Amino acid sequence: MHMPAKTIGRYIPQWKSTSSIIYVLLAISYLLIIVLFGLVASQGSSKWQQQLESMYPCGTKSREWKHFDGACYFFSIQQVIWHTAKSHCEEQKSELIVITNQYEQNFVQAETRGQRYWIGLSDHNDEGQWRWVDSTDYRTSFKNWSEGEPNDHSSNEDCAEISQGGKWNDISCNTKIFYVCKKSLPS
After folding, report:
1. Are 62 and 96 in contact (CB under 8 A)?
2. Residue 51 forms part of a structural domain
3. Residues 65-110: pLDDT tens digits?
4. 139 domain-assigned
5. Which among 169, 154, 172 has a CA at the least distance from the CA of 81?
6. CA-to-CA distance for 168 and 105, rounded, in angstroms?
7. Residue 163: CB partners within 8 Å, gap ≥ 6?
8. From CA 6, how far away is CA 92, in angstroms rounded?
9. Are 116 and 156 in the same domain?
10. Most buried one in 53, 71, 107, 179, CB count within 10 A?
11. How confident is the model at residue 133 (pLDDT cuts 50, 70, 90)?
12. Domain span at residue 38?
């Protein structure tokens, strides 16, 4: 059956307004879905962030740092002289390690696996006057020297290392060995 042109014309405007309403409703629904998805994702991302922080308390962008007893430790894979090691630690907003107790000594000794590493202790400014890089009082602080050390052998040993047995030893600051940096946990 054929409808006159006037009759068809009556239905077209109604169809256009109905489709416009449908498009508006679809757009609003789409926006609501996006907003709801964003809310759910933001709650999930904070949980995800908490999980990452528990896995990497020293920061997710610094996975090479190890966490122990409220601090972060970096064990280098590059061998350098003592002054370069000190500078590398400072560049990473940390300092050469100051070992404060037997528990920390045990942790560092286990992590160094029998290798030699610089620690933040030297007497290069004043022979026989050992100083920690953070100004911790050497006289009253923890010590773990090998027997007979420090001995300033050949008058050329002004920097401290953790030696292969885990004990401390004084050696020439120009010896190239690994190093340990330490910093507080990020806040």
Report:
1. no
2. yes
3. 999 999 999 999 999 999 999 999 999 999 999 999 999 999 999 9
4. yes
5. 172
6. 10
7. 116, 146, 169
8. 81
9. yes
10. 179
11. very high
12. 20-55
